[in-house]
Design goal:
The structure holds two protein chains of two kinds. Chain A is mainly β. Helices cover 0% and strands 52% of the residues of chain A. In chain B, β9 (85-95) and β10 form a beta hairpin. Classes of the chains: A mainly beta, B mainly beta. Chain A binds chain B through residues 30-31, 33, 35, 40-45, 48, 50, 56, 58-59, 88, 90, 94, 96, 98-101, 103-106, and chain B through 32, 34, 41-46, 49, 88, 92, 97-107.
């Protein structure tokens, strides 16, 4: 079954405590992306990756890091989380043609 | 800066009627256009995509694209209460070595009234 798996699904953390949200896909997709979704602001792209070791900033990259060491994994790293990073996060992947984009189930992150 | 505009709604439509959702985009280089449905707290689900001017039909759904007017719409025929959700329009621009991800509109909240 085609899947994009994110972990954790729910997390409450404290300001400044580094955390990583993992994302893994089993479809051998080249493209992977991270989005955040906030009320009234919609889905906004944080970072994307076109292949292993190839990443680029999206629209709202500040405060985030990513890496793509393996094709299947694209972790999102918050080095020093702040309350304004409280959001619903989605990982997504697609093949080279990019017609069908698969989303993970989302990760609810609260920073207090 | 790529922008995708949608009326946030809520758009209220009686059951069985046609729901019409609209979207405009700013980047004339946009080449692919997507409609997603999202239930509250869930991940977006792809309904359909369209590349060429004109209409594309899939079951009860029809996507319409007019590149000259930078306008894309989604029609839902025979609306059902289960169609009540937020509908996201998204566009993709291809550049350099490949797609650089989607730019989403903020979504239109659709309510189908039984």
């Amino acid at each position: 079954e085609a899947q994009v798996t994110q972990n954790p699904r729910y997390l409450i953390t404290v300001t400044g405590k580094k955390l990583t949200v993992t994302c893994s896909q089993n479809m051998n997709h080249e493209y992977m992306s991270w989005y955040r979704q906030d009320p009234g602001l919609g889905l906004r792209q944080i970072y994307y990756s076109m292949n292993v070791e190839v990443t680029d900033k999206g629209d709202v990259p500040e405060g985030y890091k990513v890496s793509r060491k393996e094709k299947r994994n694209f972790p999102l790293i918050l080095e020093s989380p702040s309350p304004n990073q409280t959001s619903l996060y989605f990982c997504a992947s697609s093949g080279y043609a990019g017609n069908t984009i698969y989303f993970g189930e989302g990760s609810w992150l609260t920073v207090v | 800066q790529k922008e995708v505009e949608q009326n946030s709604g809520p758009l209220s439509v009686p059951e069985g009627a046609i729901a019409s959702l609209n979207c405009t985009y700013s980047d004339r280089g946009s080449q692919s256009f997507f409609w997603y449905r999202q239930y509250s707290g869930k991940s977006p689900e792809l309904i359909m995509f369209i590349y060429s001017n004109g209409d594309k039909e899939d079951g009860r759904f029809t996507a319409q694209l007019n590149k000259a007017s930078q306008y894309v719409s989604l029609l839902i025929r025979d609306s059902q209460p289960s169609d009540s959700a937020t509908y996201l329009c998204a566009v993709k621009v291809y550049s350099g070595g490949g797609a650089d991800g989607l730019t989403f509109g903020k979504g239109t909240h659709l309510i189908i009234q039984p």
